[in-house]
Amino acid sequence: MAEAFEWGGQMGLEWARRVEALDRQLAPAGALGLAALAPRPGECILDLGCGGGATTAGIVKAVEPGGAVTGIDISPDLLAVARVRPGNEAATFLEGDAQGWDFAAGAYDALFSRFGGMFFADPPAAYANLRRALRPGARVVLTVWRDLGANPWAALPAAVGAEVLGPAEDQFLSAAPDAPGPFAWADPMIFRPILEGAGFTGLEWREEPITLQIGEAAGDASGDTGEADPVARAVAMLMRIGPAARRLKGRPEADRAAVAERLAPVLEPFVSDGWVRMPGLIWVIRARA
Question: CA-CA distance, 281 to 176, in Å (whole number)?
Answer without folding.
Answer: 18
